[in-house]
Amino acid sequence: xxxxxxxxxxxxxxxxxxxxxxxxxxxxxxxxxxxxxxxxxxxxxxxxxxxxxxxxxxxxxxxxxxxxxxxxxxxxxxxxxxxxxxxxxxxxxxxxxxxxxxxxxxxxxxxxxxxxxxxxxxxxxxxxxxxxxxxxxxxxxxxxxxxxxxxxxxxxxxxxxxxxxxxxxxxxxxxxxxxxxxxxxxxxxxxxxxxxxxxxxxxxxxxxxxxxxxxxxxxxxxxxxxxxxxxxxxxxxxxxxxxxxxxxxxxxxxxxxxxxxxxxxxxxxxxxxxxxxxxxxxxxxxxxxxxxxxxxxxxxxxxxxxxxxxxxxxxxxxxxxxxxxxxxxxxxxxxxxxxxxxxxxxxxxxxxxxxxxxxxxxxxxxxxxxxxxxxxxxxxxxxxxxxxxxxxxxxxxxxxxxxxxxxxxxxxxxxxxxxxxxxxxxxxxxxxxxxxxxxxxxxxxxxxxxxxxxxxxxxxxxxxxxxx
Length: 468
Known about the structure:
The chain is mainly alpha-helical and 468 residues long. It has helices spanning 3-13, 31-41, 45-56, 61-90, 94-102, 104-133, 152-169, 173-201, 207-211, 229-238, 250-253, 265-288, 291-298, 307-315, 317-345, 351-366, 370-373, 375-403, 409-412, 419-438, 447-467. The protein is globular, with a radius of gyration of 22 Å.
């Protein structure tokens, strides 16, 4: 049998995506494939919310502009030297690699948590798109402090959007990715246009005037906490913690020819998490000068962070289209991924039905503006819960010889539930979540210590269990 036939057979067995076998050499992709994907994925719906939210935290110019520069660099380095390095070594999905170490039953728990968190994130993106669709209907926009739906128009628009997004996601990843690739350049150009128009509306003609938009910072808005330089650095580093230090993107980089493809994540970080965040913050800075926003601030209320009206005020109908597309391109693949996570738990259900279930959960979440309005907090929690599982893979890969433990122990010993993994995660999560709540420590500050402790405890517990 020729090499080509063998690979064809492997692909057929793996359902076309090599879920349970290493990706064959003929299917590897060059760095150019990842460049477009990351630039598109990280200039999306979330950026329209995160940029303005940075302004609500009273951040200064230096803290925002230099903090984002450093935090995003740390994220790129994490992808390059951890995720991509391990991905090209084994060429396995995150789920299959975890299963080999943790056992099938424990991975089921991970998949459930992952799927639910994906649904909540997709819900926030449906909220983002709804703020644009609601403009022609004069819909009341959700306020920064809103948690519940604010009217029947909001409910109808969110349900309609959720239904359309879920149906498209259920058509499969090809449909999702093709649509995203077409829309991404439009969204990136819209962010750039929004930023330029906003600078003009703010009367900015020099670097010093641009700097003075944030100046030395201010008091945070009602209900928000004050962000310093380190808040910006650490939060932007761990905004995608589940993807890089949490190893989710093993599933992406297993197709890379070389680990150096990990550098392409810089396109996502500096186009999406730098240019787009700052452009979105500028839109909000324009709105804050309006009589409506000033009136709210004088009453001690936080002005609305509604991406639709912000973009519409800057670039008109193109702004509405950009916000709808940005929310759509984020929600779609997110619902698709959530469906896959659920399908791993109930494999008898078809991809169509698990995706519809995930879409329904996301739509219900989208009805509650809190997921979008508290996106900084939610993204921090998301990374904090899932990232330590990545430490299990990283520490086993780099330190299994020094620790004297057997790699892929669940597979070798035919374990369904590796206690070493569970207790390492539970102790690190429980300890640092308690510290965050009890002593009011910013959650992103304890993500790295929780990740490191989980990895170390995994090695210690594995040594003990494997000796027994």
